[in-house]
Amino acid sequence: MAQQPSDQAAPKAADPPAPSSLPHPDATTPIPPQIITLTKSHLRRAHPSDAPAMAREANSPAVAKYMTLRWASPYTLNDAHRWIAYATAFRVPTTTNTTTTPDGNTTTTVEVVPSMQICDPATNTCLGSIGIKTKDDIEARCFEVAYWLGEGSWGRGIMTEVLPAYVGWLFETFPDVIRLQASVFEGNDASVRLLKTAGFVHEGTKRKAGVKGGWVFDILVFGLLREEWSLS
Ligand SMILES: CC(C)(COP(=O)(O)OP(=O)(O)OC[C@H]1O[C@@H](n2cnc3c(N)ncnc32)[C@H](O)[C@@H]1OP(=O)(O)O)[C@@H](O)C(=O)NCCC(=O)NCCS
């Protein structure tokens, strides 16, 4: 599943944009508090101290199997540091805080870090992450969602709880976004199940669209519209 950071993997040297080329807010730009507390995990922004846990969780062929070529495998400590630097620098503007003043409405543009670490609620240790890839041109009001968890955390319903919470946070934080989408490799049944449970609709299959290490596979496209989310 792609993400910007695509597949939660740090871009390679040739993959634009590099962290240094991303827009950095000036020191006074307010960044909203960002923590989502759930029962099986909590979501928070990445921190450099997450790197060892992240490398430990991400360094698995089973995790890598359904990720794009951007995902490093093996996944090293350096890959984790590169991704954390990228994810914390990747900020998406949104307009919030509309207030009515005697002169009319005032809006404030803030830049939000959309990528979040999925953490063990007891230890605050990183178990995986979730984030988005922004799109442009005619798709500027769509985000692509991507996520992963370390293998030791699979099958405990963690992502079933995380995905709807994150989706809700995205729609609330980015009022201009009208559609979320996700792309899933053929055979990734857990991810398909997860997306359907969260209300995403299987909109179609791009036949033989993916090639990875000699494996040619279909890519399933899922979408969730704002109005579908607000009805759920
Ligand atoms: C996909 C992934 C995020 C799912 O996270 P998770 O926390 O293990 O998922 P959950 O435990 O919440 O289970 C989600 C659903 O998948 C089902 N499921 C879990 N493992 C499954 C498997 N191997 N085959 C089929 N269904 C499976 C669960 O039963 C559940 O369905 P249900 O609600 O009907 O019972 C996790 O497996 C993962 O990180 N995989 C590697 C990276 C990846 O594939 N990322 C997504 C790319 S599109």
From TrEMBL:
The keyword Acyltransferase applies. GO terms for molecular function: acyltransferase activity, transferring groups other than amino-acyl groups. Residues 43-201 form the N-acetyltransferase domain. InterPro entries: Acyl_CoA_acyltransferase (IPR016181), GNAT_dom (IPR000182), N-acetyltransferase (IPR051531). SUPFAM superfamilies: Acyl-CoA N-acyltransferases (Nat). Residues 1-13, 23-33 have a biased composition (Low complexity). It holds the Pfam family Acetyltransf_3. Residues 1-33 are annotated as: Disordered. Keywords: Acyltransferase, Transferase. Belongs to the acetyltransferase family. RimJ subfamily. This is Acyl-CoA N-acyltransferase.
